[in-house]
Structure formats: C-alpha cells, structure tokens
Amino acid sequence: MIYRIIITFLLVINFANSDAHATDSKLFKFSALELEMDRIANEYAGDTSAVLDALDNLLENSPSATPGERALFMTYDCALRAGLASTLAEQRLASLKEYSREHTNNAAVRAATALCEANVANYLEDSPLYRTSLYKAFLFAQKADVATLRYWISLNVSNLFEQLHDVKNNEKALLIGLQVANDNQDLHRIQTANHLLADLYLASKQYELALKHNEASQQALEQTKDTWYQAELYSNKAKALQALAQYQKAKEFIQKAISQSKKKGKHRDAQFFVLDLAFLSLLMSDLATANSLSESVELYASEYNDEYLQHQVLLQQSFYALMSNNSDKAITLFEQAINFLEKQNYSVAKLLAWQKQALIAQKAMLFKRESEALGQYSLLFENYVRENSLNIQTILQKVLVSIREDDADIAQFHLEQATTQTAQISENREVLLLGVLLLAALLAIILAKFVWSMVIRYKLNQAEINRQLFYDPLTQCFNRRYFNDVISKNLLTASLAKKTSFLVAIDIDHFKKFNDVYGHSAGDTVLKELVKNLQDDSRLSDNVVRLGGEEFLIVLPPNENLRIEVVIERILSLVSNSPVVIEDKPRDITISIGYVPVEKANSKGDIDDLLNLADKALYLAKEKGRNRAFGVSELQCPANYIDKITIASENKLLKLTEIEPKKNL
User: Does the keyword Membrane apply (predicted)?
Assistant: First the structure.
C-alpha cells in the first residue's frame, strides 16, 4: 500500500512540474460575441438592468452562437442576477443545469454552470458550497475552449487558492489566465495576471520570477496608463529586491510606492509603505532614519485611531529596540503586538511578524532570539499549511462527489430520453481523473509532510479586515474599491456624454472627540446609523460609499430634474435632525459636506482631482463652523489647478455656494 502511494506521489509531482510553467499550445482568442459582451459590460457598468437588456438583445440577434458562448452569457447573467436577488440567480442556475443536460460533452457549458452555482452560493453566504462549486468550475474550465470563461474562472479560483495557500494550483490558474490575456494582447488583463503572479512568486520565495512578472505588469501598465495599482507594483518589486539583499534598489522603489500612494490619495496605504522603509532602514543599519519614520507613522495612527496600524508601529519599535540592544523592551513591545494579532485572528500578519523578528535578530547577532523566532515561525507555518492542506483535500472530495451527482442527474435525464448514462460518464473521465490526481497529490503531500515554501503576501489595507470585494463590513455600504472600479467608470461615461453627476463628500463633525467620550463601539453605532439614514432616502440608497474612517461619499447620477442645493440641504437636515441613541440618551450628530459637479472629466485622474476638490470644499465647511456644506460650481479650470479654494473663488475660477440645514420646528 505504501509503495503504491509513493508511486502515485511521484507521478503527480512529475505531472505538476511538467505543467507548472507551461501553457496550452492552443490559442484562446476572444470571439466576436465575447468582445461585444465585454463592450456592453464596460459601457453599462453598474447599471445591471441595462446590461441584462443589452445581453438579451445580443443573444436574440446571434443565432450562430456556440453552446459555450451561450453558456458564457447565461453565467454572466447569473452573476448579475445574484447581485439583485438569490431567487433570480437560482432561476438562471436551473436553466443552465437544463442546458448542461443538452450539452453534456461541452466543458465550457459545465464550467459555466458550476460558476453560476458558485455565484448563487456566494450570495447566500454558503462558503463551503462556494468553494466546491468554484473548484469544480476550474476543473472543467481547463478543458473549455471559451477564452473569457477560462480567464474569469482562473482568476476567481486563484483567490481561493491564495486563501488556502495552495501555491501550485494558484500558479496553474494564473498561468491559464495569463495565456488568455497574452493570446488576445489584452493589456489590462496582462497587467492583472502578471501582477498576481508577481505577488504569488514573492510569497513563495521565487524572487527572480517575481521580478520578471512585476516587470511585465509594469510594461502593460505604462501602455494602459492606468496607474491605480502602481504603488503595489513598486512595493512588490521592493520586497523582492530586499529579499535578494539589494537594499539600495529596494529603498528607491519603496520611496516610489510612498509617493505614488500619496499622489492617489491612498494615505493609509502610504503609512504601511513607510513602515516597510523603516524596516529596510534597520536592515541597512540606519537606526536614526528607522526611528524617525516609525514615529511619523505613530502620529498618523494616533490621529486616526487606527488600532491595527498602531500595533504595526509597536512591531517596528520592537525591532528597533532589538537593534539597539534593548532586549527587554523589544520583547515587551513584540508581545503586545502579537497578542493583538492573536486576539483579532490576524494569522497572516502574525506569521510575518515572527519572520521579521528573526531577520532583525540575525542582523543584531542575537542568535538565541533568532532561533526562538524561527522556531515559532516554523511551528505556526506548519500548522497553517497542514490545516489548509486538509481544507483542500476536503474541497476536492466534495468536488468529486458533486461531479458524480451532476453526472447521475444528467444520466437520469438521458435515460428518460431513451439514452444511457455510459456516454456521459466516459465524457467526464478526464475531469474526474484530473480531480483524482490532485487529491492523490494532496494526500501524498500530507503523508510526506511536504511543506510548500511561501512568504505571506503583505497587503495591509481595508481589504485585509473585510474579505468582501465591494462592501464595507461595518456599515454595509459600498467601499472605496467599488468607487474606483465601478462608479468612476460610470461617471466618466456620463461626463463624456455631456451629462452632469455630482460628488458629495461627507465627514462627521467632531467624530474623534465623540469616540473619546463614548468609546469606539459608540462610534461604530454612529457610522452605521448615518449610513442607514442616508440609505433610507431612495435617491441616495445605492450611491453611498465609505472612503474610510468617518469619511463618506455620495454619488448623484445625472438627472435633469436634480436640484443639487435642495438635495444637500435635505442631507444636512436629515442628519442633524436624527440623533443617535447612545447609553440610552439621544446624541446630536452633524456633518460637513463638500460637493462638486462632474463635468469635462476625460480620465480616472480627472475624477480623482474632482474628489480632492470636493474634499477642499468640505474642509472649508469645517473651517466655517461645521454642520454646513460648501459646493463648487462654474469651475473655469481643471480641478487639479486649484490649491486654495477660497483664493480660487476670489479670482472667479469657481463659484462657491454655502448651504445650512433647516431646523425642525
């Protein structure tokens, strides 16, 4: 028995190694229908009804569409419906399952059906079913000939493999996605796939490969001129160079990451990059610079009550203390930080903390401390890998059962249609064999205690606290990523069509003082009640975005009947006349507002500049006494030309309108 397991292990490892860096020699080009679907998705992004109508019209006028293309449309329709209601998506899933019975030998149809199943499970928050269905979609997608499906499923399952720390399958998925991007010379997809591969290779200590794919992503970025993720690319490259002991080059790219983050208004991200620079300064024996950088981040974290960032500063201070031969202080600070990470269940950050301590102890020639840190890291890492290996094994077992259940359902259908199930079972033999091989590999890896090399991907932003893609976990309104990825595109489309939207920036008055008096839980209540009150207004319900902390944004889409001053006055009155009950007593809450029209915007950069201008109007409202709004109109020059908003108003470069709330009688 042991002999057979070893032989199976060797065969699977050989298969994995031969396939890891290879892609299918076949080209996977987007068909005309796939390209038209992509155009529709971009044109009507965010307007689900418009996308659904346009897709229906396209299908009606495409009688020659292949089964795979029709299944692709149906699974995209399923995803859109899942965003509206689970029952609508379940109806589409039922029709896809019916379609699978008619096209049992079509891997693209089976992959699309499994992807729809995953979308429904995700909407219903059924995580086990979501993982099983997505993995099943990936198995079928590898045999599918529809390029868009291969790309979608591969990049979606990559996120699952990343969570489970399945390096080999993650690499395989991303290489499939990269092949589709390269075959179609799609620069945005080339940039994304290479970026994710660079992160993966950095995490698995394959630094040369990380640099190679980082460079490929950078080249694509320079051609698309979409620099939103530029700072992350700089940071990724810096970490690879640091691991290769090329400290001076690493320093240059961290500094670029800091500069780019600030340029894009991602100030919290910039603080983590500053801590990266402080850590690198310790490795370069520049203790004074490291201490100065750490102190600057500490001020920021204190000002914004950022508890996670404060404990990252504690870690950095513990490393500084080690380098300064103050072991007692180093241990105390480190334990405080580790206890916080343990309590908040930040397993990834905890692993990274022990690894960094080992590096600094080695640098300080504190070899006993280095050995203890490496021991803790190894113990945590092995437990982490073992747990996730078992999770993968469980998922694969469920996938195989699910495929067999699907086959049984399809076979029963064909029996009812005077056919046999023999053909169906044989048609899925390759997919089942692939699943069995993967399962055998994982069992062998667990048996042999094979531990994959990895360093945990270090992306510490708001997404590390909530795992959802587009929603803020506390208030359940949209987050900044949704604004960047979806709303900004809608604003650009409207602006290019000469339609005026509005950006309304909101900040809660004296929020820090409120937190200090009543506590952070009360602060959370205020944030949730503010969003609830705003969303109760039907005009605002789908357009509230939390940018971070107590900062919110309302996006008002084009409307010929919109009277912006009336809307702003209503928002101010709604909040100021809606006290929040804290400690059994109503507490008055007010907000300050800055708003601007979105006009003559031709790029994402223009949208960012207008948002910065709205912030300037907001801070003018703060200066003038709070509980009021200042709005910008008649803007005579680009928004980024405006430094001092009051000076610009005096020079007639723009017009400012002041609005105060109506009081209840």
Answer: yes
Contact between 276 and 319 under an 8 Å Cβ cutoff? The reply is no
Point out the domain boundary residue: 121, 148, 175.
148
Cβ atoms of 277 and 293 within 8 Å: the answer is yes
CA 564 to chain centre: 33
In whole angstroms, what is the distance from residue 617 CA to residue 510 CA? 17
User: How far is C-alpha 4 from the geometric centre of its chain's CA atoms?
Assistant: 42
Residue at 348 is within a domain: no
Q: Is 33 helix (H, G, I), strand (E, B) or coil?
A: helix
Active site residues: 550
Q: Are 401 and 473 within one domain? A: no
544 and 420 both lie in a single domain: no
| Residue whose pair of structure tokens reads 């109506």 in the numeric block | 662
Q: How many CA atoms are closer than 13 Å to the CA of 59, on its beta-carbon side? A: 17
Buried b / exposed e across 468-507, counting CB within 10 Å, b at 16+?
A: eeeebeebebbbbbbbbeebbbbbbbbbeeeebbbbbbbb
Residue for token pair 């940039």: 191
Digit-coded pLDDT (tens) for 417-441:
544 445 455 556 666 666 666 666 6
pLDDT in tens, 633-657: 888 888 888 888 888 888 888 999 9
Contact by Cβ (8 Å): 38, 147: no
Examine the fold and report which residue of 148, 165, 183 is the final residue of a domain before the chain moves on.
Answer: 148
Strand runs (DSSP E) across 431-567, as ranges? Answer: 478-479, 501-508, 544-548, 551-556
C-alpha dihedral sign at 258, 262, 265, 270: positive
How would you classify the pairing of strands 585-587 and 478-479?
unpaired
Helices (H), 597-636: 604-623
> Do the domain assignments include residue 312?
no
| Domain around 410 | 2-23+385-448
CA-based nearest residue to 635, from 613, 611, 653, 620: 653
For the beta carbon of residue 240, count every other beta carbon within 10 angstroms. 25
Answer whether 0.70 is exceeded by the pTM: no
Q: What is the mean pLDDT of residues 267-296?
A: 93
Using alpha carbons, list the distances in angstroms from residue 350 to 241, 334, 367, 384, 388.
23, 11, 21, 11, 17
Return the number of other C-beta atoms located less than 10 Å from residue 361's C-beta.
23
Asked whether the predicted pLDDT for residue 236 surpasses 50, the reply is yes
Kindly tell me if the per-residue pLDDT of 604 is higher than 80. Answer: yes
Assign residue 486 the CATH number of its domain: 3.30.70.270
Q: Are 242 and 283 in contact (CB under 8 A)?
A: yes
Among residues 282, 223, 214, which one has the least CA distance to residue 253? Answer: 214
Which residue intervals of 545-603 are DSSP H helices? 564-576
Q: Are residues 40 and 9 in the same domain?
A: no
Q: Are residues 11 and 55 in the same domain?
A: no
> How far apart are the C-alpha atoms of 304 and 256, rounded to whole Å?
24
Phi, psi of 328 (to 5 degrees): -60, -45
- Considering the domain architecture, whether residues 640 and 534 belong to the same structural domain is answered as yes
Residue 89 lies in a domain: yes
Q: With left for phi above 0 and alpha for psi between -120 and 50, is residue 67 left, alpha or beta?
A: alpha
When computed from its CA atoms, the radius of gyration of the chain, rounded to whole angstroms, is 27
Residues 442, 509, single domain; the answer is no
The SS3 call for residue 183 is helix
Please state the domain count of the chain: 3
